[in-house]
Amino acid sequence: MSRELQALCFMAGANSMFIGGRLLTTANPDKDTDAALMADLGLRPMTMGEPRQRVDLAQADVMGMA
Q1: Domain span holding position 36
Q2: Spatial contact of 2 and 33, defined as CB atoms under 8 Å apart
Q3: Could you report the per-residue pLDDT of 15-47, keeping only the tens digit for each?
Q4: Does some domain include residue 61?
């Protein structure tokens, strides 16, 4: 997909991109190319938040949370 088409996709509401060496049978651009496109479009990746604490369902039931 060309840079111009990717830009149009983001303008139309796309909110993600595939990252990795290969998508099924098609090679993907490297991460530096994707980062450059995002910078050119004024986009920034989301940061990871604090991991959510997992609550065991049995424990949640005892605590009245289930």
Answers
A1: 3-46
A2: no
A3: 888 877 777 888 888 888 888 999 999 998 887
A4: no
Query: Nearest Cα to 43, choosing from 5, 6, 1, 26?
Result: 6
| Of 41, 54, 59, 51, nearest in space to 5 by CA | 41
Is 60 part of any domain? no
- Number of alpha carbons in the 13 Å side-chain half-sphere of residue 66: 9
Read out DSSP for 14-29?
Answer: ------SSEETTEEPP
Domains contained in the chain, number: 1
- Residue 23: inside a domain: yes
Maximal CA-CA distance, the chain: 55
Q: Which pair of structure tokens corresponds to residue 27?
A: 């090679």
